[in-house]
Design brief:
Layout: E1 14-18, E2 23-27, E3 31-36, E4 44-46, E5 57-62, E6 70-73, E7 80-85, E8 89-96, E9 105-124, H1 127-130, E10 135-139, E11 142-147, E12 150-157, E13 162-165, E14 168-176, E15 180-189, H2 200-215, H3 225-237, E16 239-240, E17 245-246, E18 269-270, H4 273-284, H5 287-301, E19 311-312, E20 323-324, E21 338-339, H6 350-364, H7 373-387, H8 406-425, H9 433-450, E22 452-453, E23 458-459, H10 486-499, H11 513-517, E24 525-526, H12 527-539, H13 543-554, E25 566-568, E26 573-575, H14 581-595
Helix pairs in contact: 3-14, 4-5, 4-6, 4-14, 5-6, 6-8, 7-8, 8-9, 12-13, 12-14, 13-14
């Protein structure tokens, strides 16, 4: 049987559910189209997102219905309600992944709201990214699917009529007002016994209570609090609970250009996000999560500083080899579909600055002291002293050759600055205060001389280039120059002018991208860059403009408050992996800066 094309065509048609070890995407057509088990970076058992129905999905919807009438998260939770209206009545499907004891469970509860509605469930499990059709059998009223290392159990409460057809498991039943049918799908390694059964209804109650208790710890109480809390819940959902690592997104290969080749695997933890994540968590009142992330960071970067990577696996794994899956057609035909990420082998000097800044922030914020932190920072600084002169691939992970990226050098300055300040605040620490001051001054001089274009009054992407880079908006934020410095103001204006694509949305760098990143095609506007622009406008006294831009960015989130990595201003849709931690970190930090009691302008 040929695979059916998507009923869902846009990234924004998806909502996220998860259990803090993995996550699923549920479409407006009631289909779970992406789920990797048991971890974020495991092989997907539902991969329709990047292929068709035969690559695995699980749809629950009224017979004959196409898209839902409406959907929403229960307030302050990651529990999703999808409602359907038919001529016969109305029905609600509640989706969640309860925090697991041992095994991951996906719970889907169907409830009659009005009249009598016939509902169909179609489950096609396809292990190993949609390539392996499991053997399915009955056992004690359950359906058991097994293939190689994977096993999954499906049951319903109460039991409903279920049959196998077209290499799928189908159920059909009717619900009247107030009636409920719950489905539970449980994964476990195939060589182990079935894990204990969970009660879907008590799981729902506990999930709601747990998420609300967590959300209530948010200290922010300004405007747009719902958007801030939704972003914090999303960041929490992208956290791998056993280690504290935070993935950039739960997906791979959602395209940065419709139909293009800019498709990357984001199911890993980038050090770059560390300072910004820490900042967001600490400012919003989440000390515990900040500490878990800081501890993950320390374990991941332990070892020779020359071997420091820009990213790691969720448990700190170093090898993330990149390969392609030829059997998947790609989201809307965007190929190749990539697993793993070769950028892991790049040199990005800015990472050293981000790590130093994170650890300085952690120390200032009163996170529990760790005896080895300063020793690690000293080793990183000694490495940077000689390494900082090298060209690198920069924070955008270009594949078009190394350059002297200005943002990378600014972050080297940040590393030296935070080291100097730490020694000034803690004179009992050992370190080369004079040498690091000298390094800080030397980097500052070189950047201002070689990375600045006096004719156009702007910093440039790399030494001697004419290209611009939205990352230069971070110069005042990291303290490299004060916000009122004419060079900072000039850079902000030049970036708005040259990288802007309508209403303050920014591309990452100048449009002839392939000379920089070595890839064909274009990409959309990069959402975190626009949040950085709002921050820069606020810091330079243009708070009204900053707030207008922030509101415009909020309007780009989908109906359940989620943002992808990029936005296509031509097609009016989200692009890139989804939901994207970087975008939600930007939203939280900008909201806290604009409305969190800090006054400017």
């Amino acid at each position: 049987m040929a695979g059916h094309p998507h009923l869902v065509h846009r990234i924004e048609d998806y909502a996220l559910i998860g259990d803090e070890q993995t996550a699923a995407l549920v479409g407006t057509d009631g289909s779970v189209d992406w789920l990797c088990l048991p971890r974020f970076d495991s092989a997907a058992c539902f991969a329709r997102l990047l292929g068709d129905e035969n690559n695995g999905h699980w749809r629950i919807a009224p017979v004959g219905a196409d898209r839902c009438a409406r959907r929403a998260y229960r307030p302050d939770t990651l529990v999703l309600d999808t409602e359907w209206e038919t001529d016969e009545g109305a029905v609600r499907v509640t989706d969640l992944m309860p925090q697991r004891d041992r095994a991951p469970d996906l719970v889907r509860i169907v409830q009659g709201v009005r009249g009598e509605v016939t509902v169909r469930s179609t489950l096609r499990l396809r292990f190993d990214y949609g390539s392996v059709v499991p053997w399915v059998r009955r056992s004690d009223g359950h359906r058991v699917a097994v293939a190689g290392p994977d096993s999954a159990w499906l049951r319903s409460e109460p039991e409903v009529r279920t049959w196998g057809e077209d290499q799928g498991t189908h159920s059909e039943f009717t619900v009247q007002e107030g009636e409920r049918v719950a489905f539970v799908l449980t994964w476990h390694p195939s060589h182990e016994a079935r894990p204990p059964l969970i009660d879907p209804y008590s799981s729902l109650r506990h999930s709601i209570a747990d998420w609300r208790a967590w959300a209530s710890r948010c200290r922010y109480d300004g405007p747009y609090r719902d958007a801030v809390v939704r972003s914090l819940i999303t960041l929490k959902a992208l956290t791998y609970a056993p280690t504290g690592g935070i993935v950039a997104a739960p997906t791979t290969s959602l395209p940065e250009e419709p139909g293009g080749v800019r498709n990357w695997d984001y199911r890993f933890c980038w050090l770059r996000d560390s300072t910004l994540t820490l900042n967001a968590l600490l400012a919003a009142g989440y000390q515990e999560e900040a500490e878990a992330w800081r501890n993950w960071l320390l374990r991941a970067v332990a070892g020779d500083p020359a071997d420091l990577q820009i990213m790691y696996g969720v448990a700190g794994e170093r090898r993330l080899p990149e390969f392609e899956l030829p059997w998947l057609a790609g989201f809307d035909g965007a190929r190749p579909v990539r697993i793993g990420n070769d950028a892991v082998n790049q040199l990005q000097l800015d990472v050293y600055g981000e790590v130093m800044d994170s650890l300085a922030l952690a120390r200032r914020s009163g996170l529990s002291p760790q005896p080895d932190i300063w020793a690690l920072q000293t080793v990183l600084m000694n490495f940077l002293r000689s390494a900082w002169r090298q060209p690198d691939e920069g924070l955008w992970e270009v594949r078009g050759g190394r350059r002297h990226f200005v943002h990378s050098k600014v972050m080297v300055w940040v590393a030296a600055d935070r080291a100097v300040r730490t020694l000034e605040e803690h004179p009992d620490f050992d370190g080369d205060l004079d040498g690091w001051r000298e390094l800080r001054d030397e980097v500052h001089r070189e950047v201002c001389e070689k990375g600045y274009d006096p004719e156009r009054n702007t910093f440039t992407q790399s030494y001697g280039s004419r290209e611009l880079d939205a990352a230069l908006l971070l110069i005042p934020r990291v303290g490299f120059l004060p916000p009122d410095d004419p060079r900072v103001l000039g850079t902000i204006d030049a970036i708005r002018e040259e990288l802007g694509q309508g209403d303050g949305l920014l591309r990452r760098y100048t449009s002839d991208a392939r000379t920089v990143d070595g890839l064909p095609g274009e990409e959309g506007t990069f959402l975190v860059c626009s949040f950085w622009l709002a921050d820069a406008l606020h810091m330079t006294g243009r708070t009204k403009e900053a707030r207008e831009l922030f509101e415009r960015l909020l309007g780009l989130a989908n109906d359940v408050g989620l943002l992808a990595e990029e936005y296509d201003t031509v097609g009016g849709r989200l692009l890139g992996n989804f939901p994207q931690a970087f975008s939600h970190i930007g939203l939280v930090n900008t909201a806290l800066a604009l409305f969190g009691g800090e006054e400017a302008g």
